[in-house]
Amino acid sequence: MTIFKVTYILLIWIIPILGSLYSFRKLKEEKQIELIKELRHPLSYLGIIPIFIGLLVFLTGSTSVSGIKALSHLGIGLMHFGWFVTWVIRLIKGEESTFKSIAMILIGVFVLIAYMYLY
Length: 119
What we know:
Strand content: under 5%
Structural class: mainly alpha
Largest sheet: none
Shape: flat
Radius of gyration: 17 Å
Number of helices: 5
Number of strands: 0
Distance between the termini: 21 Å
């Protein structure tokens, strides 16, 4: 593994973490408490966080030594799981029209097929 790949993998994880911490510390105290409450919501655990973690894991697996396929597959799986949970919650709450719901299904299926075809 070259030094560039190691540096790239470290930057994939360090930049978002440091950026998040920096933004969090810039917030006022009441906004920090509100953000912590939002992050403890089950939708964050099951929908939003897996999407971001999945993207980072996918990028890590893609740039590692020989492109570790297990990490790439895990990352894509996490992203699709988060997308699916978010879509179902929005559908249950009635925040999406029928057209948007069908479009989201088609986009998810298209991305999954494209991933399976390319990898």
